[in-house]
Amino acid sequence: MKRNAAAGIVLAALVVAVLACLPLVVKKDSTINLLVLVLLYVVLASSWNMIGGYAGQSNLGHAAFFGIGSLVTRLLWIQGWPFVASLAVGVASAIALALLIGFPAFKLRGVYFAIGTLALAQILNVTVGNLLPEMSYNPALADYQLLPRYYLFLALAVLTIAAAYAVVHSRLGLGLMAVRGQEDAAESLGVSALKHKLIALVFSASFAGLAGGAFAYYHVSYYLNMPFHPTWTFDPMMMAYIGGAGTVIGPIVGSVFFVLIKELLVLNVGEYHLVIFGALFILVVLFLPGGLVEAWDKTRRALQRWMRSRHRSPVGTEVR
Amino acid sequence: MLESVSQTLILGVLVGALYALVALGLSLVFGVTKFLNVAHGELLMFGGYASFWVFSLLGLDPFLTIPTTLIGLTLIGAILYQLVFVRMVKLPEEAKIKNTLLVGFGLSVILQNLALRFWSADDRGITASYSSMAFTVLGVRLPLVRLASLLTALVFLLALHLFLRKTYTGKAIRATVQDWEAATLMGIDIHRVYFLAFVLGAALAGVAGTLVAVNYSIEPSMGLNWTLKALIVMVLGGLGSITGTLVGGLLLGLTESITSLLLSSNYREVVGLVLFVLILIFRPQGLFGTKEG
Predict the structure, then answer these.
(1) ipTM, interface predicted TM-score of the complex
(2) A83, part of any domain
């Protein structure tokens, strides 16, 4: 187990190093943009996973945090604030929204929480669309550079995954999983369900807010209510599930997989990727609750068993 | 002033009856099977397209397209049930609601993108020769299409009511809602009951889609909005009773039209959603609670 964890960290460091050096080799903007998309989805799916996977609270309002982060960051930054300061305020607004939503929403359990958060996010979506219907343009278009954006997203993805990893291996993570398993039992053992769920939501919202801020920095022009659209909830949720909800690696696998099949299908059969992705999501919910991560684990174990039984083949001549 | 108020109220009632029909299928399915099929709005969208195509290709009167839409959506409902939902019948209630919700989202993504491929993202609507006709009674305008929609909605609400009250199958459905174990012991095949309820729900979504296509417009991404409307009506009216659904629909219709009058039509949707969240918080299980079929 220990060795596995060390190997995992080495592997992760290697992947990050490769991604960091990639722009030195790859000069095509389209490739970098594709990677930005993957990294954005990694952050969104991993942050959704903190509340939806580990804490088991199907939050259908994730887009609200992504949206508020991008909205506040964008407005301040366009007005001439330094980007980092705008981003900080953007994240703070996402956290504030999480606290504001969290108290009433966590009065709702299970499916009521799911449809309640969906409704709350839609309220915000429609209201922002009403108040700020115009397109937001980046005034400093002339010196737009892609690479700083790429590195910002890379840093965010690393930060999100590291945070998810740290949470899972902490007391807080254990508490969250206890709440997911049996809320009443957890309460009876002194784990405050509300506190844990709120912390998870704040965690989840702050990373979604960061992603929103980075999105505001990355996009040249977009409608301000676009990041509030419910697809920013559903797509990351499906990615987390397909990869494996409630695992650190699952949302990463899901995001890479999503963008990969999107690209492959667009080249070959047209825009059918969401149809296929939706179908995969249903299959995972029905037959494979652990997602691709679990499928991989199962196959690996089956392979190991098969290998061992082959090594043992001639009767009685087993050498150990 | 008085005229615009009464006009608003009348429109609220006309729209509200339509909302009740939109929610009827979802409410029936949830009441009987505990499946929360959030792809309801997408089924409605498919119903709208079915009517739209029969109307524009065969030139049939929009209200006469309803039988074909019913058949089409019954088929789609049957396929979806047998392919997907049948696998969740045996889950415990809470897991069943959660999984059908997730599966419903998957389905809505699939149906929405298929519609986008088949029929493009264009807004479409059904405009009949009499679409602009209206009666004026005491200074209040009553558009003919809206009246016909009201009538259609009421006919279907009443038909379902009579079906559940008077027929043997309807009684079997109600028995299953009350206590599925006892119903099984009495020789009711609850799998058939579930199947029937689901297919009926899909067919009702289809008719609602026809009315939406006639009164508003249809496009592939419309589903979520209508699913939310159906959920709001369900929560407002309490679950399972058809009268409750009608009351919930009327409440939502009136709330929306009054909001349009006082505030702006942009905030119609928002007010319904706010109402929804408030009820969820302050009467969490209460409004979902009643179980009678």
Answers:
(1) 0.88
(2) yes
Chain A residues near residue B284 by CB distance under 8 angstroms: 107-109, 112
Of 1.10.3470, 3.40.50, 1.10.287, 1.10.760, the CATH number of B2-121+138-289 is 1.10.3470
> Structural domain boundaries of chain B?
2-121+138-289
Residues of B in contact with A112 (CB under 8 A): 280, 284
Kindly report, residue by residue over A30-57, the tens digit of the pLDDT: 888 999 999 999 999 999 999 988 888 8
CB proximity A103 to B under 8 Å: no
The whole-model pTM stands at: 0.89
CA–CA min distance A261, chain B (Å): 15
Q: Which of residues 243-272 of B touch A (CB under 8 A)?
A: 264, 266-267, 269-270
Residue A50 forms part of a structural domain: yes
The range of the structural domain enclosing residue A120 comes to 28-229
Range list of H helices, chain A: 2-25, 29-49, 62-78, 83-105, 111-131, 146-168, 171-181, 183-188, 193-218, 231-243, 249-268, 273-287, 291-311
Whether A100 is in a domain gets the answer yes
Maximum distance among all Cα pairs of chain B, rounded to whole angstroms: 61
CB contact under 8 A, A111 and B114: no
| pLDDT per position as a tens digit, A94-140 | 999 999 988 888 877 778 888 889 999 999 999 999 898 888 887 66
